[in-house]
Amino acid sequence: MRIAIVEDESLVALGLQGILEENEHEIVFMATRGATAAELILQYEPDVVLVDINLKGDGLDGIDICRLVKEMTMANVIIITAYNDPETIQRAIDAGANEVMIKPITEDALLSVLSSL
User: Fold this and answer.
1) How far apart are the C-alpha atoms of 92 and 53, rounded to whole Å?
2) pLDDT per position in the chain (117 positions), as tens?
């Protein structure tokens, strides 16, 4: 699968990248800011976008990115978050997320979600 990673915590992003590449997925880009990610998603058209809900910087969060992806592409969206409250999870689902994963994300859980898409 062609996967985009949108995560502002570099250690988390690199961990995801390592898991995905070890399992023969292609990382089409990594971004830390919402606006940059939005442009790159439209340019590279990944199959899956892994996006953190909380992104620092330009005002676009993971929910905004999820809505954009669902409106403008055929990509699946997996939202990753440290927040396990029902309100946050419902916001992600309402935005069109295919899956919501709570950090920390294990390799087995990530690969299982990807295989179910």
Assistant:
1) 8
2) 999 999 999 999 999 999 999 999 999 999 999 999 999 999 999 999 999 999 877 788 999 999 999 999 999 999 999 999 999 999 999 999 999 999 999 999 999 999 999
Could you write out the three-class secondary structure of the chain? CEEEEECCCHHHHHHHHHHHHHCCCEEEEEECCHHHHHHHHHHHCCCEEEEECCCCCCCCCHHHHHHHHHHHCCCEEEEEECCCCHHHHHHHHHCCCCEEEECCCCHHHHHHHHHHC
- According to CATH, the superfamily of the domain at 2-112 is Response regulator (3.40.50.2300)
pTM of the model: 0.94
